[in-house]
């Protein structure tokens, strides 16, 4: 079983080669700013990134002809269910010409298709658990202002992979388990998985602040700022200059912890608030299942921090046992998802846009 997985980021492309149950080659290929700056839109980088992937394959002795599947991280599609989707012309058209959000994950499906075109007749191109996975209950969509609907946007690929792994290791079928997964990184997402569906989540613009994103803010104090700054500036502040970075001047949690250990009392309070807000988000989602939660999982880069894990356990372990799955699991999640489709254990869905 030979599978190539592709995960495009803003300044890098992660590529892995999966063979009979495990990843045997993996590389995060960085892209220099000067190589990207002349592309007006991210989608214009298709040829550039495809050629880099083909070079990686040639260097590692991976022939497109031997691939059973090529799987890319799914992009900003309309709300879809979880699982696998075959890359088709409708999906490619939507990502190239319709989607209004310029996001690097939009490249995943198209790059998978491009590599598949170099493969054999049996090679399939897929995406798995795209960013726009939406399995919310209707009650979770209500925002508090008619005409504005809460949407499921977050780290679905990593969170579902972690949820399935934690459930399996706990001896509980994913389709019967209730789990809360907190993805802690540059942006924070917290989701609740109930009987095989991600029924609600707290996105990085609603809940706890992260290392560089503001999270939810007091609305009445934010409104005046919107008249003082452009939309572009406000998006930059929320997404790149908020959170711990706005208080500490850095988004590096390790550096912040070192400064706290050296006696920075003001930063200590901020860091405690960082942990406090994540715990509040976990507690908030526990009410969705009336407190009946089997496991709480912590994932993402910040889950490597002993201080964060310890602080969260003190606050939320009364709800359910806390399991740490630090880092990201996206490449293996893509590969395993594609493998299930090739083996016939899971049916690939068809994307339709009307």
UniProtKB/TrEMBL annotation:
The superkingdom listed in its UniProt entry is Bacteria
Q: Which organism is it from?
A: Enterococcus florum
Matches recorded under SUPFAM superfamilies: Actin-like ATPase domain
- Molecular function as annotated in GO: acetate kinase activity; ATP binding; butyrate kinase activity
Q: Which NCBIfam families match?
A: butyr_kinase, PRK03011.1-5
- Report the Pfam families cross-referenced here: Acetate_kinase
HAMAP family per record: Butyrate_kinase
Keyword terms = ATP-binding, Cytoplasm, Kinase, Nucleotide-binding, Transferase
The protein in question is named: Probable butyrate kinase
* Enzyme class name: transferase
Localization annotation: Cytoplasm
